[in-house]
């Protein structure tokens, strides 16, 4: 059961003695911080695989009672990505076609296209390899595999740019994306990551459109022991985020992560709302938001290209988070996005666990998709 009340100065938690924002973007909106009861068992069941280091003591106690096993080591990129269609198809291709000829290169191009690398990128990659094959630069399939890996890493290294939140304080991260990409869950994982880096943090519940979105974000806030600025369901999203930025300034918060409603790029009204958020924040900080992170579902394929084009026009996307790359994801969309837009890929989601949101690493990503040699693939298999 949720309880709504305004924070009292004597209440325990991360906001003790800190003032609430003095004004609101609209006179009618009243900003509230929403707290949950400590025994939120139902919330824990929503994401049973996620355990946060900064959870409340009651949550920690319950966790220690339910499992005495030591924490498992984080799975490697190879372990996470080996099951993708990209890894399976390309890995098997060289084993089936050890002869360096046009048939191998044609099938390679087909594999790249079906793995969502995109026609333009796949053609460019294969044509470069075809020229080198014609010059007899490769002794065997292993040499060709090595050249392919080098091309893929080079393509991705241009977008391997970690997010630096030290340039502004508070540093405002605005999260955007279509419905169902894992945006709110990604916010929780980012919160966990920033807290581990010793940044003070605040969340803004700007998704006032989806039912229970505010409550979901507040659950993440409670588990991380992080304040969440929220208003009633249906409130103006720009007003909520404006109030949060005021509160972050007054409390000297270093990082503010603002959620927004998931929306299709064809929903003109909701897309216009993103532009409004930027305008409203600009009244308080002309440079905000400092990072617009678009969360993209790695299983979406080439539809991600169209989505990003529209979001970039509406709000000016500055970085990407590609989720759901483990399991059955094709994985090639990462290369398509890199070639088409050149936007930094800040993070990738390699699983459901709290540590499975990884800072993007071009070499590690390609290593996860393709073995270094054909014999290495055989040994791994």
Descriptive overview:
The protein has 15 helices and ten strands. It has a ten-stranded mixed sheet, sandwiched between helices. By secondary structure, it is α/β, with parallel strands linked by helices. Helix content is 45%, strand content 11%. The N terminus is likely disordered. It has two domains: 83 residues, Four Helix Bundle (Hemerythrin (Met), subunit A), CATH 1.20.120; 191 residues, Rossmann fold (3-Layer(aba) Sandwich), CATH 3.40.50.300.
Total strand count, please? 10
What is the domain tally?
2
CATH superfamily of the largest domain: P-loop containing nucleotide triphosphate hydrolases
Give the N-terminus to C-terminus distance in angstroms: 49 Å
Residue-averaged pLDDT, rounded? 79
**At the first level of CATH, what is the class of the largest domain?**
Alpha Beta
Core attributes:
single chain; 381 residues; alpha/beta; Four Helix Bundle (Hemerythrin (Met), subunit A); Rossmann fold; ten-stranded mixed β-sheet; 15 helices
Summarize this entry quickly.
The protein is of the alpha/beta class. The protein has 15 helices and ten strands. The relative contact order is 0.17.
How are the SSEs placed, and which strands pair?
Elements lengths: L2 E2 L27 E4 L5 H6 L10 H10 L10 H5 L3 H12 L5 H13 L4 H16 L6 H17 L13 E6 L6 H14 L4 E4 L8 H12 L3 E3 L6 H14 L4 E4 L9 H15 L8 E7 L5 H13 L3 E5 L9 H9 L3 E5 L7 E3 L2 H8 L4 H7 L1
Parallel strand pairs: 3-6, 3-7, 4-5, 4-6, 7-8, 8-9
Antiparallel strand pairs: 1-2, 2-5, 9-10
Helix pairs in contact: 4-5, 5-6, 7-14, 8-9, 10-11, 11-12
